[in-house]
Amino acid sequence: MYGGQESDRVSDLLAGQISRNFVYAVNSQYRLGPNILLGLEASQARTAYTGGRIRLLNHYDLALAYLF
Fold first, then answer.
1. For residue 51, what are the domain limits?
2. How far apart are CA 61 and CA 51, in angstroms?
3. How many domains in the chain?
4. At 12, is the secondary structure helix, strand, or coil?
5. Where are any strands of DSSP class E within 1-68?
6. pLDDT tens sequence across 15-47
């Protein structure tokens, strides 16, 4: 798991600019066989704009690896 936040002072920004970004995620790996790995990751980014608008962005990853 990981996460982070970036936050600016609203008094320093113009209308419609980004005031805060907050991202968090979780990832894991599973061994399906002796040489095969499966990786999963899910994350969400929340962006707040001056004026109260919030945008959510969900991101999902799936990876399959073969070890030589």
1. 2-66
2. 32
3. 1
4. helix
5. 2-7, 18-31, 36-49, 54-66
6. 878 888 999 999 999 999 999 999 999 999 999
